[in-house]
Structure formats: C-alpha cells, structure tokens
Amino acid sequence: MKYGVVVFPGSNCDRDMQDALQNDLGKEVVMLWHKDKDISMFTTNDCIVLPGGFSYGDYLRCGAIARFSPMMQSVIEFANKGGKVLGVCNGFQILCESALLPGVLLQNANQQFICKNIFIKNANSSALKIPIAHGDGRYYADDITLNDLEKNNQIIFHYCDEAGNIDAAFNPNGAVRNIAGIRNKEGNVFGMMPHPERATSKALNNLDGIKVFELLGLN
C-alpha cells in the first residue's frame, strides 16, 4: 500500500505522518501539495492521508476552507471511487466538512486545548494509548446519524480508560457517545481525533499507533 500525505497551509503533523509511515511502517510515501490535483499515481488499494494541524489557519471553521482546495477535489473523487482515505485530527474535521464523513467536530467541552495521552479501543482491540492534541475535537451528530453509525459498525474507536472501560469519565473532549473515530458506510474513509502517527516509535516507548493502522487495514 502506497500513501499520499496532503500538505495544507497550516499542516503541522504532515512530516510526523511521513516519518511514521516511512520509517516505522516501511511504506512508500508521496507528499501532496494542496494546490496540486494529480493523484493518478495512486490506485484504490492505496491511501491518502489528511494530517493534523490548522489548515488555512482554521480561520473560518476547522477544515472548512481546506475542503475547497484543488487537492481535496481530487481526494473526494478518489474516495468516491473506493480509494482509502484517513483523516487525523484536523484531517478528520476536513472529512466532515467535505461530507465524506457524517457529523461535525465542535469545541472541546472544557473550551481548552488538550494535549496528552489518552486511551481508545474498538471492538477488536484492548485499550490503546494514543496522544491527542486539539481544541475542537468534540464529535457531534444527531441521534438518527449516531444510531446509524452504531447499527452499521461505523464507530471505529471509543475513548476509554487503560482497562478498556468506555465511560464519559474517560472522554477528554465531551464527544457524543465517547466517539474518537468513525468510518463511512463503504468502509474506505476513516476519521479520528487521536494521533496514531505519534505512537509508532520505539524511541517514544509506544507502538500502539501501529496497531491503529493494522486495525483499520491500512498497514
């Protein structure tokens, strides 16, 4: 699987993602500038990554301006054809603004920027320690959408404690139903607030991020 990492003005995790994918997962990575359009070098077996940061300064709304960049038009077409797309943090916000994923990311419930290690899990994993760093990470959707996400197994990660207990007490940002990440119905577009690329190095004594890529089938 080959990866493309999109670089927007204000991206600040693009090189972290490149380093994790190339050096820790041994993948081929192509950096993609936001003003370019050509992603013909990728097939639907490859993956385009939207990294964290503050695309276009988040001056209008997180991810709202990036949604209209030339590269995102190509990414939307790529996703609609079945290509794999992963959005992390600001990338998750962009996917929601682009309607590739349902819902929206709102300001953290405590109205503060949060940067720390937290725990997440999905149906096939124990608790994974993954860093977060965001001020607008509170996932929200209406009850109809949330019920559909649960019914279709589209919630890929919940916030939990170290033992894997899912409870509001372990939810760092107030996300509805403790949601840390979701996928689309087709299963090829993924969005999550925690940063798996910051947990793939032995030097950081944390390889749980590699397990995230494996669980999503992006390894």
Q: The CATH topology is what?
A: Rossmann fold
CATH C-level: Alpha Beta
Global shape:
globular
Low-pLDDT sequence parts: none
Total beta-strand segments: 11
Provide the spatial order of strands within the biggest beta sheet: 2-1-3-4-11-10-9-6-7
The helix content is: 10-25%
- What's the domain count? 1
Pairing-aware structural class of the strands and helices?
Answer: alpha/beta
Q: Main beta sheet: strand number and arrangement? A: 9 strands, mixed
Q: Please write the string of helix (H) and strand (E) elements.
A: EHEEHEHEEEEHEEEH
Instruction: Name the CATH homologous superfamily.
Output: Class I glutamine amidotransferase (GATase) domain
DSSP helix count?
5
Distance between the first and last residues' Cα: 7 Å
User: What percent of residues are in strands?
Assistant: 25-35%
Q: How much is the radius of gyration in Å?
A: 16 Å
Description:
The structure is a single chain. It contains five helices and eleven strands, in the order E-H-E-E-H-E-H-E-E-E-E-H-E-E-E-H. The protein has 219 residues and is of the alpha/beta class. The protein has a single domain (3-215), classed as Rossmann fold (3-Layer(aba) Sandwich). The strands form two sheets. Strands 2-1-3-4-11-10-9-6-7 form a nine-stranded mixed beta sheet, sandwiched between helices. Strands 5-8 form a two-stranded antiparallel sheet. Strand 6 (114-121) and strand 7 form a beta hairpin. The longest helix has 11 residues, at 14-24. 49% of the residues are buried.
